[in-house]
TrEMBL record:
Gene3D superfamilies: NAD(P)-binding Rossmann-like Domain. It comes from Colletotrichum salicis. This is Short-chain dehydrogenase/reductase family Oxidoreductase. Keywords: Oxidoreductase. It holds the Pfam family adh_short. GO terms for molecular function: oxidoreductase activity.
Amino acid sequence: MTQQWSPMNDVPSLKGKIAVVTGGNNDIGREMARLLVKKSAKVYFTTRSEAKAIEARKKILDAHPDINFENLQWMTMDLADIWSVTSAAEKMKEKESKVDILVHNAAAAITSTGLVGPGWEVHMATNFIGPFLFPNRLLPLLKKALQDRDADVRRYLGRFIFGFDTTRYGVSKAANLIFAQELQRLMDEQNLLILSIAVHPGEVATEGVFSINPSLVKTIARRTFISPEQGAVTPIFAAASKEIRQDPSKCKGRFVFPGGKIGNPNPVTSNEEQVTGLWRNATEEVAAQLRVRGLPSLQPWY
């Protein structure tokens, strides 16, 4: 990925592709939805608030009257609520027969130490449990995309950004990285051309940073952090670039940094005991809560 790489100039047409972006009402999520729909993909973005979804959609369409308004849709979903995640996935199945690109952008990075749902810590629930369940619910649609004649690579993206509560946030995002890696292994075992990639967009001056961080950090963010528009570049590169499509083996199950650099940022991802333990515990915990709620079971990843 060169310094001159541009989503608008270097991403090929995505006409006929279906993309889902979680947390698409502002900042990086909204910018990603805008870029994907500008490249002719049909985009569904999620947000917890219907009012914010309507406002975000209007902002994009007002700024780009050339966009086919039918190609930009929204759904409400709270990643910390397994009922909400299941409901959103079912609605997606009713609307579309496939999903080509799934971007997990929504994340919690807050000062709260509260618990949600059955007693899950809010960061783990939003940043890991929800992104664990949602692609499982959408797995038939992700696999269906592989049957398209022109389909070559599908992507699941986990977003890693600067957070205020670094301990809780960092643990949840380390779990996210493990999930991306293990999901890739499962897809590879089935010889499925589904890419699972974790992405660091850079240190981005988002609304979340300005709303929860102390004044000093706000000042630093305004002076040194990149804009949401710039922050969307690396995720878009991972999701839709020709470079990734031409050589997917370089980044599958890996972590993509700004500039397209690829690495493994956390040693825990290389600890087999940690990886298998997290996957097993997540599966058991989510399965148990789905039973309690009377919701459909997890689908086999195979």
